[in-house]
Structures are given as C-alpha cells and as structure tokens.
Amino acid sequence: MNAEIVSLKNVSVYFNDVSVLEDITFSIKQNDFLAIIGPNGGGKTTLLKVILGLIKPNRGEVAVFGKTPEEGRKLIGYLPQYTSFDLKFPINVFNVVLMGRYNGIFKRYSKEDKEAVINALKIVEMLEFRDRQIGKLSGGQLQRVLLARALARERKLLVLDEPMTNIDPEMQQSFYELLVELKKEMTIVLVTHDIGVVSVYVDEIACLNRKLVYHGSKETALKKLEDLYKCPVELIAHGIPHRVLKRH
Ligand SMILES: Nc1ncnc2c1ncn2[C@@H]1O[C@H](COP(=O)(O)OP(=O)(O)O)[C@@H](O)[C@H]1O
Ligand SMILES: [Mg+2]
C-alpha cells in the first residue's frame, strides 16, 4: 500500500460560527489522482487551504508528509482557484515561473533556479513563449504557465483548484493529458465540476458538501452515480463524448 502523504482526522472549520467543514476524516496516498467534486460553497477550496496550512481548522488534526501543514506545504505545488494576477503588469512568462522559486527577499536567483524554470516550461510545453508578456497569452496558455510556476520547485503533491474555468475544451484535453503524465511522478488533487473528465482521468473521487459524502475508488463511485447526484455536478452533459470515453 502506498504511503499516506496527507491525513485529516475529524477536521472542522467554522467561519463566524457558520460550519464550512464538518468532521472530515480522510487521507491521500502517494500517487493518488484524486478529484474533489461538490457544489459551489461546499468547502472545496477551504479544504485545500487546510491542507496547505493557509487555514487552521477549529478542530481536528492535519498531517502533510508526516509534518505540520506549514512545514509539509514546501512539497506542494498549488494552483489557486483565482489568480490575483494583474494581467496588465509588464512581466514575461519566464519571470512569472521564476516566482515559483522565490526563496526570501534577500536571496538572488541562481543558475539552478533559472534551469528549473526552463525545465518547468518544457514540461508544460510553453518554453517558446518564455519572453511573451503575461497579458498576451490565451486562457489555456496562461494556465499552463501558472502550472509551470507551481512545478518550478521540487514538488511531490500537486493541488489544483478548478483549473479548467475559462479554458476552451481543446485546451482542457491537452491539460488533462499533461496531468496524466505528471501523475507518473507525483500525487495530484484536482477540484473540478467536470464529472465527465473525472470518469476518464482520475482514480479516486471525494464528494464534498460541508461533509465528505463519498471518498473512494472511481470505479465504485461511478457505479454509485446515484449517490453522486447528491452533488449538483454537471454530469457528463457538457463533456465532449471523446473525452468521456476512455481511448483503447
Ligand atoms: N475567509 C472566509 N470567511 C468567511 N467565510 C468564508 C471564507 N472563505 C470561504 N467562506 C465561506 O465558506 C463556504 C465554503 O467556501 P469554499 O471553500 O470557497 O467553497 P467551494 O470552493 O467548494 O466553492 C462558503 O459559504 C464561503 O462563503
Ligand atoms: Mg472553490
């Protein structure tokens, strides 16, 4: 059995006395490709932030790589749901990815940092855009660059919060194929509404609506589609058939 890299025990979060996460217990194992689905406001982003140590739970215990989330998150690459990025800011692709290597205000970037940036841009197939200003990319290209930034350091867990919003279907498919490649070397947690894509690419599903309704293997989950209807996910409807069916 693969090692447990994230573990939550009886985690609860309240915002101003309103319960957002209730008694969540689950774990993520090495090399899992886990999708978290659920309605808007169901607590998905909050759960990711708890794992990243950005929100402290009111109750319960969290361990990330056997450490506190603050320590463990150094091994996590994070692509947030909303990027607080001024697209008019005159910064090029290379320097955005270099930010992923940021190591404190007094540290200068080394040759190693720059090599890591080039490598990350190669992985997401965006190296030829290295000098392009960030505002002059398509939504899909920008998302790849932000993924490269999340990958620019040695990461073992990749956390993606609804990365497909505003990306056209063609780009989505190649993004997912990229994730399948990355999965060979890392663990991935993906928050998404696209159950069609979930059924093809991921291995496990957690369904979150304040409580964790379901967590387990995709096969079992898909047999229990009725259970999953508890979550108002856009079921396959907006998926393109060739993305829904596994290729042989
Ligand atoms: N910092 C915060 N302060 C107060 N309420 C918050 C905060 N962050 C999120 N919430 C609330 O917590 C609930 C869960 O939010 P979120 O985790 O963003 O859900 P999801 O990502 O599943 O859409 C929502 O009702 C949201 O309004
Ligand atoms: Mg969210």
Pattern of helices and strands: EEEHEHEHHHEHEHEEHHH
Overall 3D geometry?
A: globular
Summed over residues and divided by their number, the pLDDT gives a mean of 85
Mind telling me the CATH superfamily name of the domain at 4-85 and 156-244? P-loop containing nucleotide triphosphate hydrolases
State the low-pLDDT regions, or none. Answer: 231-248
Number of alpha- plus pi-helical segments: 10
| CATH fold type of the domain at 4-85 and 156-244 | Rossmann fold
Strand residue content: 25-35%
Any overview of this molecule?
The chain starts with a strand and ends with a helix. The strands form two sheets. A six-stranded mixed beta sheet has the order 5-6-7-3-8-9, with helices on both faces. The chain has a three-stranded antiparallel beta sheet with strand order 2-1-4. The protein is α/β, with parallel strands linked by helices and 248 residues long. Helix 4 packs across helix 5.
Strand and helix map with partners:
Elements: E1 4-15, E2 18-29, E3 33-37, H1 44-51, E4 59-64, H2 69-72, E5 76-79, H3 93-98, H4 111-123, H5 139-151, E6 157-161, H6 169-183, E7 187-191, H7 195-201, E8 204-209, E9 211-217, H8 218-223, H9 225-228, H10 241-244
Parallel strand pairs: 3-7, 3-8, 5-6, 6-7
Antiparallel strand pairs: 1-2, 1-4, 8-9
Helix pairs in contact: 4-5
Short description:
The chain is of the alpha/beta class.
Task: Please describe the structure with a list of short key phrases separated by commas or semicolons.
globular; 10 helices; 248 residues; binds magnesium ion; Rossmann fold; binds adenosine-5'-diphosphate; 9 strands
